[in-house]
Structures are given as C-alpha cells and as structure tokens.
Design brief:
It is a single chain. By secondary structure, this protein is α/β, with parallel strands linked by helices. It has a single domain, classed as Spore Coat Polysaccharide Biosynthesis Protein SpsA, Chain A. Helix content is about 40%, strand content about 20%. The protein contains eleven helices and eleven strands. Strands 1, 4, 5, 6, 7, 8, 9, 10 and 11 form a nine-stranded mixed beta sheet that branches.
C-alpha cells in the first residue's frame, strides 16, 4: 500500500467571526471537547494506513505545545494560505521519504470531524482514478444535510448534482508549482463559486449559470488550459468538508462530540 506524506495547514490566525466565541490566538488551537481542533485531525491521520509521515505548517512555538511528538516536523507559517501550502510542499519534498512523484495530502487543521473511514474512502477512490496530478473531494448536498441537518456550506450546482468542496487535497507537488499564480487566486475565491468560475472563462461561467457545467467539464479543462490532470472525487462523507470557520460550525462540532 502506498503511504502518503500529510501536511496539515495550521497557520490561520483567529481574527474572524470565531474570535467572538473562542479566544485562542490561532484557529487550529480552538478547543473542542477539551482538545485543540488540530489534535483530532492529526489523530485521524495517524490511524490511517495510507499515511506515513505528518508535518504541520503554522506557528511553531504555539503548536509544539499542542501537538508534541505526534507529528514528524513543524514548519513556520507565512503570511497567507498559499504561502503555507508551498512551504509545506517544499518541506515535504526535502523529506527523504518524499521522493519525486510522491503525492502529498494537504489538509486543513479545522476539520475535527474527519474520520479514518472518510479519509480511507477518499484514498481508495483516488487510487481507482489513478494517474492524476490532483485529487479533490466534493460532497453531495444530500449527504451533508442528511447527516448534519442545517449545516451551512457553500454549494455549486452541476449537471451531476449539487456539491460542496472538501478541505483536503491529494497533489503532486510539481504539478501545483506550474499553476501557483492561478492557485493563489483560486484559494482567495474558494468561498465565492461565481467569481471562481470566472477564472475558468466565459464558457464555464455560462454553463454554471444555466446548471449545465459538469464535473467532467472541469476535469477536461485542466490539461488543456493548465497542463495538469485532476479528478473530482465524489465522497459520501460530509466530514471531509465541514470546516470550522464560523460560530455555528464550532457549535455543531462541539455538539457532535458532546453526543459521542
């Protein structure tokens, strides 16, 4: 079984809406059931047979107290998410285990509901679509609302259905390096699907407007326009996408852990 290096992105300062309900300096350190959110993500990664080494990009001093020796390395964070993505990829690439061609899992630190079942299902579906540069999970709206009624997510309607994006991605680092500028723009617009679609061009925007855009359209566009290949992985597990970035999200995950 191929084992992947996982890079946890944990550099986001707690300066948004969550600051109203949690006083921690960084979002990764906000507590859920007595533990920082990041510890749940790392625990899930450690239990997955698909994961080898684990690194974290974020405030080293603060995180070292929270994660201890549960990770293999810590890398200082930069000014923006895109900086942290490439800091993590570059550090992982220097790792002797991460040889050329080795794919890396990027995962945010704010998805404490992530389970080993959801993660392993994602890897199995990726392997079934083998040979791509980028694998990104999308979750059907029906799956989200069936398991977590009332959860607020950003959705995009396609020909196949209505989906929300996940908060992890399996990537070939050299492929992302080719599209760093476009990726930076996409990251900034990740919560604004209409503006994001403009990056793909007028044809895609019109297809999205009239609900005629398909997942296959996007997959076919990537090699033609960017020279990389990708696959959208339809996941039945909402946990890959429920991130904690507003008070209602934090209330939801705290309730889930309380019920457990």
């Amino acid at each position: 079984m191929e084992k992947y290096t996982a890079v946890v992105l944990a550099g986001a300062p707690n300066e948004g809406a969550l600051k109203e309900v949690a006083g921690d300096r960084y979002e990764a350190l906000i507590e859920v059931a007595g533990r920082p959110m990041i510890s749940y993500v790392i625990g899930t990664l450690r239990r997955s047979p698909h994961i080898g080494r684990i690194g974290v990009v974020g405030p080293v001093e603060e995180l070292s107290k929270a994660v201890g020796d549960t990770v293999d390395w810590l890398e200082p964070s930069g000014q923006a998410l895109i900086d942290n993505i490439f800091r993590g990829l570059e550090r992982a690439a220097r790792d002797s285990v991460a040889q050329k061609g080795h794919k890396i899992l990027l995962v945010t630190s704010d998805i404490p509901l992530l389970s080993t079942e959801a993660l392993d299902d994602f890897f199995q579906r990726c392997q079934a679509r083998g040979g791509r540069d980028v694998y990104y999970p999308v979750v059907p709206r029906e799956a989200n609302e069936a398991k977590y009624p009332g959860v607020h997510r950003t959705y995009v309607r396609t020909k196949e259905g209505t989906f929300t994006g996940g908060n992890l991605v399996l990537v070939a680092p050299e492929a992302l390096g080719k599209i760093r500028t476009l990726l930076a723009a996409a990251v900034n617009l990740r919560k604004k699907p209409w503006q994001l679609s403009r990056l793909l061009g007028l044809r895609f925007t019109l297809k999205l407007l009239f609900h005629r855009l398909s997942v296959q359209d996007v997959e076919a566009w990537l090699p033609r326009a960017l020279g990389i290949t990708g696959a959208a992985i339809i996941s039945p597990y909402p946990e890959v996408g429920i991130d904690v970035d507003k008070p209602s999200d934090l209330a939801l995950v705290r309730q889930v852990f309380a019920e457990r």
